[in-house]
Input
Amino acid sequence: MKVMAFNGSPRKNWNTATLLEHALEGAREAGAEVELVHLYPLDFKGCASCFACKRIGREEIGVCALKDELRPVLERVRAADALLLGTPVYYGCESACTRAFIERLQFPYLNYADYSKPHFPRKIATGLVYTMNVPEGLLERLGYPASFERTRANLARHFGSCELLLATNTSQYDDYDKYEAGFDKQDKARHRETQFPEDCRRARELGARLAQGYRP
Ligand SMILES: Cc1cc2nc3c(=O)[nH]c(=O)nc-3n(C[C@H](O)[C@H](O)[C@H](O)COP(=O)(O)O)c2cc1C
Output
């Protein structure tokens, strides 16, 4: 059992990465082999719309034709038993880097001839972690749940299943006195001390579930 996680934040040790590390710790404790891939340092772009992955008579099914630094990562995905994507919310959706990754991850497995039969060779469990500045109470008003659900459902459709984990009201930096901000500093600090450890605990549990493999 191999669980691969992907950090779609440019920061390698902040909210998103921390949650992914806890998730992978949970997966490791449950007996899985784990790998964390930081997406930002990789030189890659989103789908080039070349449609090589849709050509009749192509040599390989489910393979993106682009030859860049994402290619070996996508090759390892083919052998993975569970995937976990983590992203900060940027302007109400995934970071640009995460979106580029999702296009490249999913499109080769999209079966235009029969949407109900993706080209990914088996069903696996996936997870999707979002971290965001806004407090939980604002999510509906901002339309975030619908945006998250669209991405979650797409992952489930391509790979088998997908579970969502949201971490709200994250701290954007260590010291709120150093940056312009209309945020309630004390509330941020309180949230960091009480809620974020709880988010990490939920991430650990998610990782353990991913390590159990696909369940319909
Ligand atoms: C360019 C940019 C856009 C952002 N847009 C939003 C947003 O629309 N909604 C939100 O709740 N937080 C937004 N944030 C805050 C981040 O989502 C939040 O701080 C997140 O936890 C950062 O993850 P990280 O610590 O892993 O980098 C934005 C941050 C940046 C840098």
Notes: The longest strand covers residues 82-90.
